[in-house]
Design goal:
alpha+beta, MutS, DNA mismatch repair protein, domain I, DNA polymerase, domain 1, 4 domains, 4-stranded antiparallel sheet
Length: 387
């Protein structure tokens, strides 16, 4: 196999610098402006100050108080992403997007030089979007993505054929797919600090120390082995909605109330994209330590109805600690299927009531998003009884 991995450089921030010439050469942070906001991404000028994605905005601004804060414009990023993916389609029929700004490409049978092809991809992307990207080339997904990160921004790295294990041996174990801080700590505790250490270790001993599944997974990667193939028919994996609060939530009732608009947003997006969800996930982040917890479930029948999403989401709260202060609540639909995909109903299954969502969408499209609201979301005026 010959796999390319293309990753845009600081994508959201680069789009903001492109569209706002006054931002160029300056530290730019894309994310929520409130004190509870989180960094979505940042420019390379901001990274030198220690700013990084998923960092609390308050921390980022302490590190880089002169940074320019840009509110995310997802619709703009999505349109640019479509341009980029269309360009990649000119090079390979097998493209697997990982997100709006990166994708794998199966380049089996490529007749031209991988370096020349990677340079042409960069040239085409720059010409169409005025943005730079980095490209990694390797015999499999893991090595291609590994290579992409080595020479950012605007870099090209090709893993030498026949020297895959040697190429990655000197890097720290955290560079392996699936190794987070806790796993890295476990590996370091048994003397595995470099990828080459895992490759050279006795497999039977590794299985005893780490468990068979993790040991086999890490051993394969340390040797440059990854059998996964590019899946060009991959669809969007999930659609979610979340928000961070200025004031902590402290009860189940508050969490349930804030799940309602998220369910509405997700359901509306599903209908717009002609998709239905096969599963629902609820996510909360606690204020102390920013710890994240989530619970999920599958639906009996795929749906694009907010009522169905909520009916499945509420019981998931039973498995979460709602006594602690909560700073973020979110709802995500996953296992997405096309709206026109046939569905086998049970013989005695009652007819599903048609969703009113499409009627709500039509009203919102004609009169604006605030033209129609749920009664539960309305706040009674002072001294006026709620209905």
């Amino acid at each position: 196999m010959l796999i390319f991995h293309m990753d845009m450089d600081a994508f959201f921030a680069s789009v903001e610098q492109r569209d706002h010439p006054e931002y160029r050469g300056k530290p730019v942070i894309v994310g929520g402006r409130s004190k509870r906001g989180v960094v979505s991404t940042c420019s390379y000028e901001a990274r030198v100050f220690g700013v990084h994605s998923a960092q609390p905005m308050a921390v980022a601004l302490r590190k880089c108080p002169q940074a320019i804060i840009a509110t995310p414009r997802m619709s703009v990023y999505s349109e640019v992403s479509k341009q980029i993916m269309a360009i990649l389609g000119d090079f390979s029929p097998s493209i697997e997007p990982l997100s709006v700004d990166e994708a794998f490409m199966d380049m089996a049978g490529l007749l031209e030089s991988p370096m020349e092809t990677a340079l042409e991809i960069q040239r085409r992307v720059l010409e169409a979007t005025q943005l730079t990207c980095s490209v990694g080339v390797g015999p499999n997904k893991f090595l291609a993505k590994f290579a992409t990160d080595l020479q950012k921004p605007n870099g090209i790295t090709i893993v030498p054929e026949g020297h895959e294990a040697e190429f990655i041996a000197g890097f720290p174990v955290r560079k392996l797919w699936g190794v987070g801080p806790k796993t890295e700590e476990r590996l370091t505790a048994i003397g595995m600090e470099l990828i080459g250490d895992i490759a050279a270790a006795d497999l039977a001993w590794l299985r005893i120390e780490l468990g068979r599944g993790l040991a086999d997974h890490l051993r394969d990667l340390s040797l440059g082995v990854d059998l996964r193939v590019v899946k060009p028919d991959r669809t969007r994996r999930s659609i979610g909605s979340e928000n961070t609060f200025e004031v902590d939530l402290r009860s189940r009732t508050e969490v349930e109330r804030h799940l309602v608009p998220h369910a509405d947003d997700v359901a509306q997006t599903l209908r717009k994209k002609k998709l239905r969800a096969g599963g629902v996930r609820v996510k909360i982040r606690y204020t102390d330590g920013f710890q994240l917890q989530s619970r999920q479930t599958t639906l009996e029948h795929p749906s694009d109805d907010a009522r169905v999403l909520l009916a499945s989401a509420y019981p998931l709260l039973d498995g979460l600690d709602l006594t602690r202060a909560i700073r973020l609540v979110g709802l995500t639909a996953f296992d997405l299927v096309d709206d026109d995909q046939p569905e086998q109903l049970g013989l005695f299954q009652p007819q599903v009531r048609p969703s009113i969502g499409k009627a709500v969408d039509a009203i919102a499209n004609r009169f604006g998003p605030n033209a129609i609201k749920r009664g539960s979301n309305l706040t009674p005026k002072k001294d006026e009884p709620s209905i």
